[in-house]
Design goal:
Layout (H helix, E strand, L loop, with lengths): L1 E9 L4 H14 L8 E6 L15 E7 L2 H9 L1 H11 L3 E9 L1
Antiparallel strand pairs: 1-3, 1-4, 2-3
């Protein structure tokens, strides 16, 4: 099992709209890509715990059975459309964690 975590920081003037677009498109479109398992998305939970990073705006997490499925996902037309329509216009910074 391969875990794919994507953390987004949005441009200051697009936070609300960007959140709506990312969350709706992730749950509505990215789940249609073959190989995507257990897709989750959300926003930070408020906390006073110093070890928890709440500086980001949106997080996605999904699982794949193999690295080849992750590679196919990266190239898939739905994912490419997601990048063009939801990431490029709204996202200032993105960090990805892939691990097994």
């Amino acid at each position: 099992m391969l875990n794919h975590i994507v953390i987004f920081w949005l441009k200051a003037d697009t936070i609300e709209e960007g959140r709506r677009k990312l969350l709706a498109s992730a749950s509505g479109q990215l789940t249609k890509i073959e190989g995507v398992r257990n897709l989750g998305s959300g926003i930070p939970i408020p906390t006073d715990r110093k070890v928890v990073d709440t500086s980001y705006h949106v997080a996605l997490t999904m699982q794949f059975d193999s690295e080849s499925q992750l590679q196919s996902y990266q190239k898939h037309p739905i994912h490419q459309k997601f990048l063009r329509e939801c990431v490029e216009p709204y996202v200032e910074k993105v960090i990805i964690y892939d691990f097994s």
